From TrEMBL:
SUPFAM superfamilies documented for this protein: L domain-like
GO molecular function: kinase activity
Sequence ranges assigned to domain Leucine-rich repeat-containing N-terminal plant-type in this UniProt record: 24-63
Keywords: Kinase, Leucine-rich repeat, Receptor, Repeat, Signal, Transferase
Pfam families: LRR_14, LRRNT_2
Alphabetical list of PANTHER family matching this protein: SOMATIC EMBRYOGENESIS RECEPTOR KINASE 1 (PTHR47988)
Domain Disease resistance R13L4/SHOC-2-like LRR: from-to ranges: 71-171
Leader sequence segment: 1-23
InterPro entries per record: LRR_dom_sf, LRR_N_plant-typ, LRR_R13L4/SHOC2-like
Protein name per UniProt: Somatic embryogenesis receptor kinase 1-like
Length: 217
């Protein structure tokens, strides 16, 4: 009798250990987002956390290893805020959340998205500062944060984003001066317009970045 009880428990433990949901880290990260946002148009209805992986969910694209590479949720009428768990999507290349009504701050964990090519968060209601951790995104080509309520200085570290082709931080409430070194030397002033407290360009060699130009109170 006891041996059957023991076997039963062993099988149960094995099933729990092998169960797909325990290995579904990326699905869990996306499901945390689903729980943090209001979704009046039910665009996230197919996001079922009991599935093996999130690759069959609408607006999610995976690669051949069933790892998430795209999240396409632009213009989806989402409100609420982002979650730090998103930073776990190591193969994510496109994070498209533009034209929603998302608010709150940009999680510094977004700096963990080491495959990211495009970060499109424009036309939302994000506040707080631009996380310096975004400078870890060495593949980033497109960084569009325009039309939010972002404040603070533009992190100087972002100039080391060697792949950066397009930056748009216009229509926010940024302050200080904007850097012109590194990848920023290719950008036009259009990238920075309509930030009433932002002055610049930074004058290399003459004015220190942290000078009093551009009130940052
Ligand atoms: C967005 O959601 C709101 C409810 O929160 C609804 O009234 C509105 O019609 C939706 N807009 C679109 C374009 O679906
Ligand atoms: C960014 O990289 C630095 C080192 O290069 C590391 O200390 C930091 O934790 C990283 N940040 C994120 C959010 O990945
Ligand atoms: C933006 O967020 C603020 C709170 O941070 C809120 O008071 C405001 O109503 C939001 N704007 C819109 C258009 O939802």
């Amino acid at each position: 009798m006891a041996i059957w009880v023991l076997l039963f428990h062993l099988v149960t433990v094995a099933l729990v250990l092998l169960s797909p949901t325990t290995a579904n880290l990326e699905g869990d990260a996306l499901f945390a987002l689903r729980q943090a946002v209001k979704d009046p148009n039910s665009v996230l209805q197919s996001w079922d956390p009991t599935l093996v992986d999130p690759c069959t969910w609408f607006h999610v694209t995976c690669d051949g290893d069933n790892r998430v590479t795209r999240l396409d949720l632009g213009n989806a009428n989402l409100s609420g805020s982002l979650v730090p768990e998103l930073g776990k999507l190591e193969r994510l290349q496109y994070l498209e959340l533009y034209m929603n009504n998302l608010m709150g701050s940009l999680p510094k964990q977004l700096g963990g998205l080491k495959s990211l090519v495009s970060l499109d968060l424009y036309h939302n209601n994000f506040s707080g500062t631009i996380p310096p951790s975004l400078s870890n995104l060495s593949n980033l080509k497109f960084l569009r944060l325009n039309r939010n309520r972002l404040t603070g200085r533009i992190p100087r570290e972002l100039t080391k984003l060697q792949s950066l082709k397009i930056l748009d931080v216009s229509n926010n409430d940024l302050c200080g001066t904007f850097p012109t070194s590194g990848s920023f030397s290719q950008l036009s002033e259009e990238s920075f317009k309509n930030n009433p407290r932002l002055e610049g360009p930074e004058l290399m060699g003459f004015v220190r970045y942290d000078s009093t130009r551009g009130s940052c109170k």
